[in-house]
Every structure is written in structure tokens, then in C-alpha cells.
Amino acid sequence: MTPDQSQRSLTGYEISKMWGQLSPEHLRVALKALEPQLAREEAFRLAQLNAEMEEKKDRRAHVQHMTGLVAGLLIAIGTLAGAVMLGIHAQPWLALLLSGPSVFALVKIFVLRRTTSNDLKELRRAQASAAQAALPPAVQAPSTPPIM
Q: In degrees rounded to 5, what are phi and psi of residue 10?
């Protein structure tokens, strides 16, 4: 054996190769003694595979979460920048649609990855109240005096 082989523990396969030259009776006893080692090695390999799969799953979840954060940020910045540009160019209705609560609902969907029916109800209510507030005051036509 080389010095490297004597310092590391032998695997079950290497041990069985060395014992392959024994008589059948000795080999049967040796394999019974080797069986627990093989079971431990198999359990260790399965544990390693499970740990690797968990690590990959965690990495995928992290990448998905970061993608949602970036997408939410881009949607928020894009819609708010668009609302400012539309407001500058005298398009208040379109600016209202882009800067309203819909932006926050979209960001919530992308960042938190969840939404509820209450969110949609609040979104509709907020848009309706924002639309009412954006209406110019009603101008009353001058009333004409009755003709006599």
C-alpha cells in the first residue's frame, strides 16, 4: 500500500476486493462483517445527495426571490417615471393610471409573490376616489333670467 492509501479509510468495495482471495467460508464471514460498513457508506452517500438537492433548491428559491425584487423595482420605477413624463406633457388621466394604487399592487405581487381579494377591492376603491379627485370642478352654466 502507498502512504496515501494507509492514511485514508478503505471503502467497502476495496475491502471486498482484498478479501476476494479468501476461501468461501472465510469470505462469508468477512462479507457479514462488511455489510454494516456498506450500509453506512450508502447512508452517507444518500445524505450527501439530499444535502446537495436542498442546497440547489435553496439557491433556486433565492434566485426567484431576487428576480421578483428586481422585477418589482423595475415596474415601480418605470411606471412612476412614465407617470411623471405624462404629467409633464399634460396627460393627467394617463399619469393617474400609471401612478395610482395599481403600481403598488403590481409591486406587491412581484416582491411578496402573493395577493388577496382585499387588495383588488382596495385598488378599485382607490382608483375610483383618485379619478373623482382628478375631475375638474363642474362649471355651471349661467342661468338666464326668465323672459317676460
A: -80, 145
